User: Fold this.
Amino acid sequence: MSTQTLAGSEVRQQIAPPPARPLRRASPVEQAMALGWRVVRKIRHVPEQLLDVTLQPILFIALFVFVFGGGLFGDWHLALQYMLPGIMVQGVVFATVSIGTGLNNDLTKGIFDRFRSLPIGRAAPLVGAVLGETVRYALSGAVVLMFGFILGFRLHAPALGLLAGFVLVVVFALCLCWASVLVGIWAKTPESVQGIAFMVMFPLTFGSNIFASTGSMPGWLQAWVNINPITHLANAERGLLLGGPVAWPVAQTLLWAAGFLAVFFPLAVAGYRRRSA
Assistant:
């Protein structure tokens, strides 16, 4: 073998690329975050999806404060102070319906069939979809507060209470929305998801103390209102934004949120596995 051949072989060995490193599989948290970002990007490209969390809360405030507030409280300013924390709760709770509708639509179109071919956890698409909804819930709460401040709503608690109330309502919605996810998996069409979800949401929101004090209601209705999780959340929001009892309403709200998560999360994952099997 010639000297030139040996030299050329040595040069090729020196410039040869190093062996490729094996790709690291993303952790379940990274998978869920990536799929959650997919939901956010979808919202960016189709901003009409935000109409229900931007215009609907404003309509609720205008309708209940200006139309019914004077009759219930004698002055719409007093109605605004009492109702606004509850309307923020109502707007965010209603916003949880959309995830079930969107999920059902994706399932019927076969998008989740493509997820099955990816090396990701079985629950990652569901968790990612829920994480992506955080933007919608936060926006709904922010719209209610900003419009309320424009109309004259005033805080009677430290600014930290505003932040705590905002975080509490978003956390509650993230736990409650797993019920909507379960309905979205079970239902046959997106229209049926909306029908089923609103049949549950209306008694929860209107059968609470969002718009009127519990003491003004008949006894049989008070029994339901007193155990309604929306009542506990509305009381917690009033305490955090306006002052008053906070510890027990917040504890009750967090217990309800943990209960929703403990019940509906495993049911939703099991239902998704059966449907995508």
In short: The chain has a mean pLDDT of 84. The chain is about 80% helix and 0% strand.
